[in-house]
Task: structure prediction
Amino acid sequence: MENREYNADLIIKNCSILTPDFNVIDDQSVVIKNNNIIDIGSADLLSDIYQSRETLNGNGKLVMPGLIDAHTHTCQQLLRGRIADEYPMIWTRIMVPFESNLQEKDVYISSQLSCLEMIKSGTTAFIDAGGRHMHKVAESVLESGLRGVITCSTMDSGRDIPDTMKSSTEENIRKNRQLYNDFHGTGDGRLDVWFSLRSIITCSPDLIKKVFETAKECSTRVQSHMNEYPNEISYCLENFKMRPYEYLESIGVLDENFLGAHSILLSENEMDIIKTYNSKIVHCPISNSGKGIPKTPSLMQKGIGVGFGTDGAGHSGLSLFDQMKVFKSLMRAFWGVPIFDPVVMPSKNILEMATAGGAKAMLREHQLGTLEVGKKADMILINIDQPHIYPTHNLLNTLIESVNSNDVTDCIVDGKIVMKNREVLTLDEEKIKYESKLAMKELSIRANI
Result:
Protein backbone atom coordinates (compact mmCIF):
# COMPACT_ATOMS: atom_id res chain seq x y z
CA MET A 1 0.00 0.00 0.00
CA GLU A 2 2.88 2.40 0.71
CA ASN A 3 4.01 2.31 -2.94
CA ARG A 4 0.52 2.74 -4.37
CA GLU A 5 0.00 5.93 -6.34
CA TYR A 6 -2.53 8.43 -5.07
CA ASN A 7 -5.64 8.50 -7.23
CA ALA A 8 -7.45 11.16 -5.18
CA ASP A 9 -6.55 14.42 -3.49
CA LEU A 10 -9.08 14.28 -0.66
CA ILE A 11 -11.58 11.73 0.66
CA ILE A 12 -14.27 12.46 3.23
CA LYS A 13 -14.88 9.07 4.81
CA ASN A 14 -17.87 7.51 6.60
CA CYS A 15 -20.14 10.55 6.40
CA SER A 16 -23.80 11.19 5.68
CA ILE A 17 -24.52 13.11 2.48
CA LEU A 18 -27.31 15.35 1.23
CA THR A 19 -28.23 14.10 -2.24
CA PRO A 20 -29.36 16.32 -5.16
CA ASP A 21 -32.96 15.22 -4.55
CA PHE A 22 -32.63 16.17 -0.86
CA ASN A 23 -32.44 12.76 0.70
CA VAL A 24 -29.87 11.86 3.34
CA ILE A 25 -27.75 8.73 2.86
CA ASP A 26 -25.49 7.39 5.63
CA ASP A 27 -22.14 5.56 5.52
CA GLN A 28 -20.88 7.31 2.42
CA SER A 29 -17.57 8.68 1.19
CA VAL A 30 -16.92 11.63 -1.11
CA VAL A 31 -13.83 11.53 -3.33
CA ILE A 32 -12.21 14.70 -4.67
CA LYS A 33 -9.48 15.19 -7.27
CA ASN A 34 -8.37 18.24 -9.28
CA ASN A 35 -10.99 20.52 -7.68
CA ASN A 36 -13.90 18.23 -8.64
CA ILE A 37 -15.97 15.46 -7.11
CA ILE A 38 -14.94 12.24 -8.85
CA ASP A 39 -16.93 9.69 -6.84
CA ILE A 40 -19.61 9.36 -4.18
CA GLY A 41 -20.67 6.03 -2.74
CA SER A 42 -20.49 3.37 -0.05
CA ALA A 43 -17.64 4.06 2.35
CA ASP A 44 -16.68 0.39 2.47
CA LEU A 45 -16.63 0.04 -1.32
CA LEU A 46 -14.71 3.23 -2.07
CA SER A 47 -12.06 2.52 0.59
CA ASP A 48 -10.81 -0.34 -1.60
CA ILE A 49 -10.69 1.80 -4.74
CA TYR A 50 -9.11 5.10 -3.72
CA GLN A 51 -5.99 6.19 -1.90
CA SER A 52 -5.92 9.89 -1.10
CA ARG A 53 -3.28 12.41 -0.15
CA GLU A 54 -5.59 13.71 2.56
CA THR A 55 -8.66 12.44 4.40
CA LEU A 56 -11.37 13.92 6.58
CA ASN A 57 -13.22 11.81 9.12
CA GLY A 58 -16.95 12.19 8.43
CA ASN A 59 -18.25 10.20 11.40
CA GLY A 60 -21.24 12.02 12.89
CA LYS A 61 -21.16 14.62 10.13
CA LEU A 62 -23.39 15.57 7.22
CA VAL A 63 -21.72 16.63 3.97
CA MET A 64 -23.84 19.03 1.96
CA PRO A 65 -23.27 21.59 -0.81
CA GLY A 66 -21.72 24.83 0.36
CA LEU A 67 -24.25 27.61 0.90
CA ILE A 68 -24.30 30.44 -1.65
CA ASP A 69 -24.93 34.02 -0.53
CA ALA A 70 -26.31 35.49 -3.75
CA HIS A 71 -26.50 39.09 -2.51
CA THR A 72 -24.22 40.66 0.05
CA HIS A 73 -22.11 43.75 0.71
CA THR A 74 -18.65 42.78 1.94
CA CYS A 75 -17.79 46.49 2.31
CA GLN A 76 -20.40 46.90 5.06
CA GLN A 77 -18.93 44.57 7.68
CA LEU A 78 -17.84 47.57 9.75
CA LEU A 79 -21.46 48.76 9.86
CA ARG A 80 -22.63 45.83 11.99
CA GLY A 81 -25.18 46.77 14.64
CA ARG A 82 -25.44 50.41 13.55
CA ILE A 83 -28.63 50.67 11.51
CA ALA A 84 -31.09 48.52 13.47
CA ASP A 85 -33.77 50.40 15.45
CA GLU A 86 -33.05 53.62 13.54
CA TYR A 87 -35.68 55.93 12.11
CA PRO A 88 -35.57 56.84 8.41
CA MET A 89 -33.75 57.95 6.48
CA ILE A 90 -30.99 55.51 7.28
CA TRP A 91 -29.60 55.92 3.76
CA THR A 92 -28.89 59.65 4.08
CA ARG A 93 -27.98 59.76 7.78
CA ILE A 94 -25.83 56.64 8.07
CA MET A 95 -25.26 54.69 4.87
CA VAL A 96 -24.06 57.56 2.67
CA PRO A 97 -21.61 59.00 5.25
CA PHE A 98 -20.33 55.48 5.94
CA GLU A 99 -19.79 54.49 2.32
CA SER A 100 -18.42 57.84 1.17
CA ASN A 101 -15.74 57.69 3.90
CA LEU A 102 -14.52 54.18 3.11
CA GLN A 103 -10.81 54.04 2.37
CA GLU A 104 -8.93 51.18 0.72
CA LYS A 105 -7.72 49.84 4.07
CA ASP A 106 -11.31 49.83 5.40
CA VAL A 107 -12.59 47.88 2.42
CA TYR A 108 -9.75 45.37 2.69
CA ILE A 109 -10.28 44.61 6.38
CA SER A 110 -14.07 44.63 5.95
CA SER A 111 -13.91 42.11 3.13
CA GLN A 112 -11.38 40.00 5.06
CA LEU A 113 -13.81 39.91 7.99
CA SER A 114 -16.67 39.07 5.62
CA CYS A 115 -14.77 36.17 4.09
CA LEU A 116 -13.88 34.92 7.55
CA GLU A 117 -17.49 35.02 8.71
CA MET A 118 -18.75 33.35 5.54
CA ILE A 119 -16.30 30.48 5.83
CA LYS A 120 -17.22 29.92 9.49
CA SER A 121 -20.95 29.96 8.69
CA GLY A 122 -20.85 27.49 5.79
CA THR A 123 -20.92 29.88 2.82
CA THR A 124 -18.58 28.79 0.03
CA ALA A 125 -19.60 31.28 -2.68
CA PHE A 126 -21.14 34.75 -2.80
CA ILE A 127 -22.19 37.61 -5.05
CA ASP A 128 -21.13 41.07 -3.88
CA ALA A 129 -23.43 43.92 -4.91
CA GLY A 130 -20.49 46.28 -5.29
CA GLY A 131 -18.98 49.23 -3.51
CA ARG A 132 -15.85 51.34 -3.46
CA HIS A 133 -12.26 50.07 -3.88
CA MET A 134 -13.47 46.68 -5.07
CA HIS A 135 -9.95 45.59 -6.04
CA LYS A 136 -9.34 45.18 -2.29
CA VAL A 137 -12.35 42.86 -2.08
CA ALA A 138 -10.85 40.85 -4.93
CA GLU A 139 -7.63 40.47 -2.97
CA SER A 140 -9.54 39.18 0.06
CA VAL A 141 -11.48 36.64 -1.97
CA LEU A 142 -8.34 35.29 -3.59
CA GLU A 143 -6.58 35.01 -0.21
CA SER A 144 -9.55 33.38 1.52
CA GLY A 145 -10.06 30.59 -1.00
CA LEU A 146 -13.75 31.43 -1.38
CA ARG A 147 -15.62 31.60 -4.67
CA GLY A 148 -17.07 35.02 -5.47
CA VAL A 149 -18.62 37.47 -7.90
CA ILE A 150 -17.72 41.15 -7.49
CA THR A 151 -18.60 44.36 -9.29
CA CYS A 152 -18.30 48.13 -8.91
CA SER A 153 -21.05 50.26 -7.41
CA THR A 154 -22.46 52.22 -10.33
CA MET A 155 -24.23 55.55 -9.77
CA ASP A 156 -24.44 58.81 -11.69
CA SER A 157 -27.65 60.40 -10.39
CA GLY A 158 -29.98 60.48 -7.41
CA ARG A 159 -31.20 63.35 -5.27
CA ASP A 160 -29.77 61.93 -2.04
CA ILE A 161 -26.44 60.81 -3.47
CA PRO A 162 -23.48 63.15 -2.80
CA ASP A 163 -21.35 64.07 -5.79
CA THR A 164 -18.39 62.22 -4.24
CA MET A 165 -20.27 58.93 -4.78
CA LYS A 166 -21.35 59.70 -8.33
CA SER A 167 -19.33 59.24 -11.51
CA SER A 168 -20.00 59.96 -15.16
CA THR A 169 -21.16 57.17 -17.42
CA GLU A 170 -17.68 56.94 -18.93
CA GLU A 171 -15.97 56.78 -15.53
CA ASN A 172 -18.40 54.17 -14.17
CA ILE A 173 -17.80 51.95 -17.18
CA ARG A 174 -14.05 52.49 -17.05
CA LYS A 175 -13.81 51.46 -13.38
CA ASN A 176 -15.94 48.35 -13.84
CA ARG A 177 -14.11 47.35 -17.02
CA GLN A 178 -10.77 47.80 -15.24
CA LEU A 179 -11.95 45.55 -12.42
CA TYR A 180 -13.06 43.01 -15.03
CA ASN A 181 -9.75 43.12 -16.88
CA ASP A 182 -7.72 42.75 -13.68
CA PHE A 183 -9.64 40.04 -11.86
CA HIS A 184 -12.21 38.18 -13.97
CA GLY A 185 -11.42 34.46 -13.93
CA THR A 186 -8.57 34.76 -11.42
CA GLY A 187 -7.99 32.34 -8.56
CA ASP A 188 -8.25 29.37 -10.93
CA GLY A 189 -11.67 30.64 -11.97
CA ARG A 190 -12.98 31.22 -8.44
CA LEU A 191 -13.49 34.95 -8.97
CA ASP A 192 -15.80 36.48 -11.56
CA VAL A 193 -16.46 40.16 -12.26
CA TRP A 194 -19.90 41.35 -13.35
CA PHE A 195 -21.28 44.81 -14.14
CA SER A 196 -23.92 46.46 -11.98
CA LEU A 197 -26.49 49.15 -11.45
CA ARG A 198 -26.73 50.29 -7.85
CA SER A 199 -30.42 50.80 -8.62
CA ILE A 200 -32.52 52.24 -11.40
CA ILE A 201 -33.22 55.31 -9.29
CA THR A 202 -29.50 56.18 -9.03
CA CYS A 203 -28.56 55.44 -12.66
CA SER A 204 -29.46 57.52 -15.70
CA PRO A 205 -31.02 55.80 -18.73
CA ASP A 206 -27.75 56.34 -20.59
CA LEU A 207 -25.72 54.63 -17.87
CA ILE A 208 -28.22 51.75 -17.62
CA LYS A 209 -27.98 51.03 -21.34
CA LYS A 210 -24.19 51.37 -21.35
CA VAL A 211 -23.79 48.93 -18.43
CA PHE A 212 -25.75 46.23 -20.21
CA GLU A 213 -24.00 46.93 -23.50
CA THR A 214 -20.52 46.67 -21.97
CA ALA A 215 -21.35 43.54 -19.96
CA LYS A 216 -22.47 41.88 -23.17
CA GLU A 217 -19.22 42.89 -24.88
CA CYS A 218 -17.31 41.28 -22.00
CA SER A 219 -19.54 38.15 -22.01
CA THR A 220 -20.40 38.69 -18.36
CA ARG A 221 -23.53 39.46 -16.33
CA VAL A 222 -25.38 42.38 -14.76
CA GLN A 223 -26.94 42.73 -11.31
CA SER A 224 -28.99 45.43 -9.66
CA HIS A 225 -31.08 46.15 -6.57
CA MET A 226 -34.65 45.80 -7.84
CA ASN A 227 -38.16 46.51 -6.49
CA GLU A 228 -36.89 46.97 -2.95
CA TYR A 229 -38.52 50.28 -1.93
CA PRO A 230 -41.82 52.02 -2.82
CA ASN A 231 -39.98 55.20 -3.91
CA GLU A 232 -38.14 53.14 -6.51
CA ILE A 233 -41.47 52.01 -7.97
CA SER A 234 -42.81 55.58 -7.86
CA TYR A 235 -39.71 56.90 -9.62
CA CYS A 236 -40.16 54.50 -12.52
CA LEU A 237 -43.89 55.17 -12.79
CA GLU A 238 -43.36 58.94 -12.75
CA ASN A 239 -40.46 58.97 -15.21
CA PHE A 240 -41.19 56.04 -17.51
CA LYS A 241 -44.88 55.23 -16.90
CA MET A 242 -43.68 51.70 -16.17
CA ARG A 243 -42.58 49.64 -13.21
CA PRO A 244 -38.85 48.74 -12.86
CA TYR A 245 -38.84 45.37 -14.64
CA GLU A 246 -41.23 46.74 -17.27
CA TYR A 247 -38.80 49.57 -17.94
CA LEU A 248 -35.83 47.24 -18.36
CA GLU A 249 -37.89 45.09 -20.72
CA SER A 250 -38.87 48.18 -22.74
CA ILE A 251 -35.23 49.07 -23.47
CA GLY A 252 -34.41 45.51 -24.49
CA VAL A 253 -31.79 44.60 -21.90
CA LEU A 254 -33.37 41.76 -19.93
CA ASP A 255 -32.18 38.19 -20.43
CA GLU A 256 -30.97 35.16 -18.48
CA ASN A 257 -27.79 37.04 -17.51
CA PHE A 258 -29.59 39.56 -15.28
CA LEU A 259 -29.85 39.22 -11.50
CA GLY A 260 -32.37 41.35 -9.58
CA ALA A 261 -31.61 41.47 -5.87
CA HIS A 262 -34.50 41.71 -3.39
CA SER A 263 -37.37 41.81 -5.93
CA ILE A 264 -39.97 42.18 -3.19
CA LEU A 265 -42.56 44.58 -4.62
CA LEU A 266 -43.40 42.72 -7.83
CA SER A 267 -46.57 43.02 -9.88
CA GLU A 268 -48.03 40.00 -11.66
CA ASN A 269 -46.78 41.37 -14.95
CA GLU A 270 -43.28 41.82 -13.60
CA MET A 271 -43.21 38.22 -12.40
CA ASP A 272 -44.25 37.11 -15.88
CA ILE A 273 -41.49 39.28 -17.37
CA ILE A 274 -38.89 37.66 -15.10
CA LYS A 275 -40.08 34.23 -16.20
CA THR A 276 -40.15 35.17 -19.89
CA TYR A 277 -36.53 36.32 -19.90
CA ASN A 278 -35.32 33.71 -17.39
CA SER A 279 -33.80 36.46 -15.27
CA LYS A 280 -32.65 35.53 -11.78
CA ILE A 281 -33.79 36.95 -8.44
CA VAL A 282 -32.51 36.85 -4.87
CA HIS A 283 -34.38 37.39 -1.61
CA CYS A 284 -32.71 38.63 1.59
CA PRO A 285 -35.23 37.51 4.24
CA ILE A 286 -34.02 39.41 7.32
CA SER A 287 -33.30 42.66 5.46
CA ASN A 288 -36.48 42.37 3.40
CA SER A 289 -38.72 41.75 6.41
CA GLY A 290 -38.70 45.47 7.22
CA LYS A 291 -39.76 46.40 3.68
CA GLY A 292 -42.22 43.74 2.60
CA ILE A 293 -42.77 40.02 2.16
CA PRO A 294 -41.70 38.62 -1.22
CA LYS A 295 -44.18 36.70 -3.36
CA THR A 296 -42.03 33.60 -3.31
CA PRO A 297 -44.83 31.00 -3.50
CA SER A 298 -46.15 32.66 -6.68
CA LEU A 299 -42.65 32.89 -8.12
CA MET A 300 -42.09 29.19 -7.48
CA GLN A 301 -45.42 28.28 -9.04
CA LYS A 302 -44.31 30.12 -12.17
CA GLY A 303 -41.06 28.15 -12.20
CA ILE A 304 -38.87 31.16 -11.36
CA GLY A 305 -35.69 30.25 -9.51
CA VAL A 306 -34.89 32.11 -6.31
CA GLY A 307 -31.62 32.44 -4.40
CA PHE A 308 -30.89 33.69 -0.89
CA GLY A 309 -28.73 36.59 0.22
CA THR A 310 -27.83 38.17 3.54
CA ASP A 311 -27.58 41.80 2.29
CA GLY A 312 -24.41 42.20 4.35
CA ALA A 313 -23.62 42.63 8.03
CA GLY A 314 -25.25 46.06 8.14
CA HIS A 315 -28.65 44.38 7.92
CA SER A 316 -27.90 41.06 9.60
CA GLY A 317 -25.06 38.63 10.03
CA LEU A 318 -23.74 36.65 7.09
CA SER A 319 -25.30 33.37 8.23
CA LEU A 320 -27.59 31.81 5.64
CA PHE A 321 -28.78 29.37 8.30
CA ASP A 322 -30.28 32.39 10.11
CA GLN A 323 -31.82 33.60 6.84
CA MET A 324 -33.44 30.22 6.23
CA LYS A 325 -34.99 30.11 9.72
CA VAL A 326 -36.46 33.60 9.38
CA PHE A 327 -37.69 32.92 5.86
CA LYS A 328 -39.52 29.75 6.95
CA SER A 329 -41.37 31.70 9.65
CA LEU A 330 -42.15 34.67 7.38
CA MET A 331 -43.60 32.45 4.66
CA ARG A 332 -45.66 30.45 7.11
CA ALA A 333 -47.04 33.52 8.92
CA PHE A 334 -47.71 35.74 5.89
CA TRP A 335 -48.70 33.30 3.17
CA GLY A 336 -49.55 30.10 5.01
CA VAL A 337 -51.71 31.23 7.91
CA PRO A 338 -54.34 33.21 5.91
CA ILE A 339 -55.13 30.20 3.70
CA PHE A 340 -54.30 27.53 6.33
CA ASP A 341 -51.42 26.04 4.34
CA PRO A 342 -48.77 24.86 6.83
CA VAL A 343 -46.52 23.61 4.03
CA VAL A 344 -46.57 26.78 1.94
CA MET A 345 -42.74 26.70 2.01
CA PRO A 346 -41.29 23.23 2.69
CA SER A 347 -37.79 22.83 4.11
CA LYS A 348 -36.62 21.17 0.89
CA ASN A 349 -37.46 24.30 -1.12
CA ILE A 350 -35.64 26.54 1.33
CA LEU A 351 -32.50 24.40 1.27
CA GLU A 352 -32.64 24.39 -2.50
CA MET A 353 -32.72 28.21 -2.58
CA ALA A 354 -29.62 28.42 -0.36
CA THR A 355 -27.67 25.95 -2.50
CA ALA A 356 -28.87 25.21 -6.04
CA GLY A 357 -30.82 28.49 -6.16
CA GLY A 358 -27.66 30.43 -5.44
CA ALA A 359 -25.80 28.43 -8.08
CA LYS A 360 -28.43 29.42 -10.64
CA ALA A 361 -28.15 33.06 -9.57
CA MET A 362 -24.40 32.82 -10.25
CA LEU A 363 -25.17 31.04 -13.56
CA ARG A 364 -23.03 28.14 -12.36
CA GLU A 365 -25.66 25.47 -11.74
CA HIS A 366 -23.69 23.09 -13.98
CA GLN A 367 -20.76 23.37 -11.52
CA LEU A 368 -22.22 24.18 -8.09
CA GLY A 369 -25.21 23.73 -5.82
CA THR A 370 -25.43 19.94 -5.48
CA LEU A 371 -23.11 17.07 -4.60
CA GLU A 372 -22.66 15.25 -7.91
CA VAL A 373 -19.78 13.59 -9.70
CA GLY A 374 -18.20 16.07 -12.11
CA LYS A 375 -19.19 19.18 -10.16
CA LYS A 376 -16.83 21.48 -8.31
CA ALA A 377 -15.89 20.29 -4.84
CA ASP A 378 -17.56 23.10 -2.87
CA MET A 379 -19.05 21.58 0.28
CA ILE A 380 -19.40 21.87 4.03
CA LEU A 381 -19.44 19.37 6.87
CA ILE A 382 -21.95 19.78 9.71
CA ASN A 383 -21.60 18.11 13.08
CA ILE A 384 -25.02 16.50 13.43
CA ASP A 385 -24.07 14.37 16.45
CA GLN A 386 -25.29 16.99 18.90
CA PRO A 387 -28.28 17.14 21.26
CA HIS A 388 -29.92 20.06 19.43
CA ILE A 389 -29.78 18.17 16.13
CA TYR A 390 -29.77 14.40 16.70
CA PRO A 391 -31.79 12.20 16.80
CA THR A 392 -34.36 13.62 14.41
CA HIS A 393 -37.35 12.31 12.48
CA ASN A 394 -36.44 14.49 9.52
CA LEU A 395 -32.94 15.94 9.13
CA LEU A 396 -34.08 18.38 6.40
CA ASN A 397 -36.49 20.02 8.84
CA THR A 398 -33.84 20.06 11.54
CA LEU A 399 -31.33 21.73 9.22
CA ILE A 400 -33.76 24.63 8.92
CA GLU A 401 -35.10 24.64 12.47
CA SER A 402 -32.05 23.92 14.63
CA VAL A 403 -28.71 23.95 12.83
CA ASN A 404 -26.66 27.13 13.14
CA SER A 405 -23.38 28.44 11.79
CA ASN A 406 -21.36 27.09 14.71
CA ASP A 407 -22.31 23.56 13.70
CA VAL A 408 -20.27 23.85 10.49
CA THR A 409 -16.97 22.10 11.24
CA ASP A 410 -15.23 22.00 7.88
CA CYS A 411 -15.42 23.97 4.64
CA ILE A 412 -14.07 22.90 1.24
CA VAL A 413 -13.92 25.18 -1.80
CA ASP A 414 -12.64 24.10 -5.20
CA GLY A 415 -11.40 20.88 -3.62
CA LYS A 416 -9.26 22.62 -0.99
CA ILE A 417 -9.92 22.64 2.74
CA VAL A 418 -10.32 26.25 3.86
CA MET A 419 -11.62 25.38 7.35
CA LYS A 420 -10.85 22.25 9.35
CA ASN A 421 -12.41 21.56 12.75
CA ARG A 422 -13.57 25.21 12.95
CA GLU A 423 -10.05 26.55 12.27
CA VAL A 424 -9.85 28.73 9.15
CA LEU A 425 -6.66 27.77 7.32
CA THR A 426 -6.48 30.59 4.78
CA LEU A 427 -6.94 33.69 6.94
CA ASP A 428 -5.47 34.94 10.22
CA GLU A 429 -8.60 35.14 12.35
CA GLU A 430 -7.08 36.87 15.40
CA LYS A 431 -5.31 39.49 13.30
CA ILE A 432 -8.47 40.23 11.29
CA LYS A 433 -10.61 40.62 14.41
CA TYR A 434 -8.09 42.95 16.05
CA GLU A 435 -7.67 45.15 12.96
CA SER A 436 -11.44 45.24 12.36
CA LYS A 437 -12.08 46.63 15.83
CA LEU A 438 -9.62 49.47 15.23
CA ALA A 439 -10.94 50.15 11.73
CA MET A 440 -14.56 50.33 12.91
CA LYS A 441 -13.70 52.92 15.55
CA GLU A 442 -11.66 55.09 13.17
CA LEU A 443 -14.28 54.92 10.41
CA SER A 444 -17.13 55.76 12.80
CA ILE A 445 -15.34 58.93 13.90
CA ARG A 446 -14.38 59.91 10.34
CA ALA A 447 -17.91 59.38 9.01
CA ASN A 448 -19.54 60.89 12.12
CA ILE A 449 -21.93 57.99 12.54
